[in-house]
Amino acid sequence: MSRSLIVACTACAAVVSVMGNVKSPTLKDPSVKGSTKLTFGQDTNYPPYAFKNESTGELTGFGKDIADGMTAMCDELEIQVVETKWSNCWSSAGGGTLGALLEDGTLDACMTYTHTQGIRNKYADFSYGILEVNKAAGLLSVLENGKPIVTGLDDLAGKTVVDVGGWAPTADGLGFVTNKCTDQKYSSDYTLLVGKNNDEALEMLLNGTADAMFVYADQAYNYQCKDGVEKEWDCTLWDGFGTNFAYVQTGQFGYTNNGTTLAMTKKDSGIAEKVNPCLAKFMASKEYHDICVKYELTDSCYRNEFFTQAEMEKKEYNKPTDEHKSDCSNGYCPCPETLLSGAYNHMVSGFLALILTLFMV
């Protein structure tokens, strides 16, 4: 694995939920033969990263497949993945802190968390990333007659913004990101609310309690229920993507230190250091490539020798707003034409002024 891959792999973290009274395994003395046994947690409402197989009821997802693959590949490591609530991993209480089961050692780590800037670094360590810095933040707005109420030009001054409690991007993340239409930071003169989950935050946007929703740029896409199977979230609510609401900002990475990580651990626990050597080995393998293909995440995965160029083509939700070309009907609004035409007019005016100056010389 290349040095750049290993360095880039440094960051996000995992989300998790434990059923029953799961005891935390003790790390074995390195001098004693045998594998280190670890318990990682995940919830079931975060496809394609962490969810349940609807046929078997078993835990599955991008994170679990990687953890299982590492257990099969590395003799020195055994990872047991258990179900838990995300709130047992990271709590939004008091501005953000470790969840109870990660704090007390019931869980050694939680899976598929993003290594963000801000409060998480005070309480948590992170393994290498299992995806590149792919978890862009975005802003959702209500649509009226196909047009967003809050546009991509808005600096949010005087607006109310709702964040999703317990999820990245965390509430303090808005201060780190840049508007991709104006290339400016947002005003600090906004009111911030926190919804208890994705559904409640979206409801607050749709009912007018909030003007915009600060959320992952792929969240609405991943919450589309196209198979007719009941989910843990309100499918009807999210079906309005591209008709009732849409993103007016995407591609905002300023809030993050790294992409999606395999393990978020308690600060100074040493778990990440135990996991990283095997993780680096696994991410250089064909098995890692095949998992990326399975979950349609190839454009976000760290490329090794098994990836093709075609597999790295960027998906719409991974593009910044100024690269979106269609209208809002696909859920991703472009920068308003007024900005684009203004920039064009500014360029033309500058060019004409240059020509005039040359003739006057």
Write the layout of secondary structure elements.
Layout: H1 3-8, E1 13-15, E2 36-42, E3 45-46, E4 50-52, E5 59-60, H2 62-73, E6 77-83, E7 90-91, E8 97-98, H3 100-103, E9 109-116, H4 120-123, E10 124-126, E11 137-144, E12 147-148, E13 160-164, E14 191-195, H5 198-206, E15 212-216, H6 219-222, H7 235-238, E16 245-252, E17 256-260, E18 264-266, H8 271-282, H9 286-294, H10 337-360
Parallel strand pairs: 2-6, 2-9, 13-14, 13-15
Antiparallel strand pairs: 1-9, 3-4, 4-5, 7-8, 9-17, 10-18, 11-12, 11-15, 11-16
Helix pairs in contact: 2-9
Describe this structure in words.
The protein is of the alpha+beta class and 361 residues long. It folds into two domains: 172 residues, D-Maltodextrin-Binding Protein, domain 2 (3-Layer(aba) Sandwich); 116 residues, D-Maltodextrin-Binding Protein, domain 2 (3-Layer(aba) Sandwich), CATH 3.40.190. Helices cover 24% and strands 22% of the residues. It contains ten helices and 18 strands. The strands form five sheets. Strands 11, 12, 13, 14, 15 and 16 form a six-stranded mixed beta sheet that branches. Helix 2 runs antiparallel to helix 9. The longest helix has 24 residues. The chain is globular, with a radius of gyration of 22 Å. The N terminus and C terminus are likely disordered.
